[in-house]
Amino acid sequence: MSNTEPVPSVITCAETGTAARASVLSPRAVPLGGPRAMTVRRTLPQRSRSLIGAWCFVDHFGPDDVAATGGMHVPPHPHTALQTVTWLFSGEVEHRDTVGTHSFVRPGEVNLMTAGRGIAHSEDSTPATTVLHGAQLWVALPDATRGTAPAFEHHAPPELVGDGARTRVFVGSLMGHSSPVRTYSPLVGAEITLDPGASLTVGAREDFEYGVLVDTGDVTADGTPGTAGELLYLPPGAAELVLRAGASGPARVLLLGGEPLGEEIVMWWNFIGRDHDEVVALRERWQHEARASLEGPTPGARFGDFPAVWSEALPAPDLPNARLRPRGRRP
To answer: Which residues are the signal sequence here (predicted)?
Structure first.
């Protein structure tokens, strides 16, 4: 997914110090697109916290009636130095990219795209979709691997069932199950559904920080309550996490975690860089290549050759009238 805000925020994505206790991050509504824009609830990045592990972007959308909203239509757009992780609860999204991928993502499956040195992709909900509901997540690549070759992976994790909980691990390892999709820093991502009043104790890595994105219902994470749309942040240090659903109904969450990145990064629009000048250069490169690549193959294109079916591309918005400043914990 693209950050299609017409004036994207200037965000210095960086770790803050660990919190003394769990905290609640409230979402902000962000419209993506035109008059019938699909609105997402964004909980990362924000002023109080920009990263959870290497997870740097959390958009949560739906359930949306596609007949009313028009669904998802994100024209071709670029990414660098990150991975996109798409996870759906309902609906179907068609994905195309410049490494030749044509894929669909459906509920209970994960699409993971590694941008590396540069990629472009498009995302569209399919005509069969009536209700669209899911999350798009970004992972910042560490400096040592951010120039890796772009790639795409698809995986349908098995459902783990027991004691009033159902779990699908789509990134990393949890509860004895591992996802085969490749990541470049220690991470975990899982969907967990709890029956009313049920609790689940999850073994945690003490060097990980965690986020619990509440999709539906009411949940407490280590005693901190959260409701639909909120992201509960838990700092490193715990050997286990206890999730409990409210008694009034079932609850569903995405559990996201990782080892703190320990690097300074700058995220602007769909690019991740390490300083202002790098982001400026990426923007200029995309503006040139987006025009040229619509005409046909472009030798040496950083963002790859466009599929023949693409007839448009998102232009980059204007840069702010200030230098983008990286901040955060240095390695």
So the answer is: none
177 is in an annotated binding site: no
**How many whole angstroms separate alpha carbon 177 and alpha carbon 273?**
33
Q: Annotation-wise, does 276 bind a ligand? A: no
Show the domain range for 87.
Answer: 23-258
168 occurs within a structural domain: yes
191 labeled part of a ligand binding site: no
Q: How many domains does the chain have?
A: 1
Handedness of CA 199, 24, 188, 249 (dihedral sign): positive
| Series of mean pLDDT values for 10-residue runs along the chain (331 residues) | 59 45 91 70 91 96 93 95 98 98 98 98 96 98 97 98 96 97 98 98 97 98 96 96 96 98 93 96 97 93 96 95 75 47
For tokens 């995405």, what's the residue?
A: 254
Residues in CB range of 140: below 8 A, 6 or more apart? 13, 51, 54, 56, 81, 82, 261, 263, 265, 267, 272
Q: Is residue 127 part of a domain?
A: yes
User: Does 181 map to a domain?
Assistant: yes
C-alpha span between 234 and 253 (Å, rounded): 14
Whole-model pTM: value is 0.92
Annotated binding residue 79: yes
DSSP states of 135-170: EEEEEEPPGGGTTSPPEEEEE-PPPEEETTEEEEEE
CATH of the domain at 206: 2.60.120.10
